[in-house]
Amino acid sequence: MATAEQLRALVRSHFSEDPERFYTTALQVAAYGAQRLADSDHAMQPSTH
């Protein structure tokens, strides 16, 4: 899930009518979510020790 600051940046970039900035922000939000998902999946893996 995106942080509050990321969502604010996404909304601001949308209303600034700057498509490049909007897409960049959207990709950053998506990357943040993917990383958090990968981290949570890794944390759920059983220990091999």
Strand content: under 5%
The largest sheet is: none
Shape: elongated
Q: Uncertain segments of ≥5 residues (pLDDT<50)?
A: none
Task: For this entry, give a set of tags.
single chain; mainly alpha; 49 residues
TL;DR of this structure?
The chain is an all-alpha fold and 49 residues long. It has helices at 4-15, 19-44.
What's the structural blueprint in terms of helices and strands?
Blueprint: H1 4-15, H2 19-44
Helix pairs in contact: 1-2
Structure characterization notes:
This protein is mostly helical. The protein contains two helices and no strands. Helix 1 packs antiparallel against helix 2. The mean pLDDT is 86.
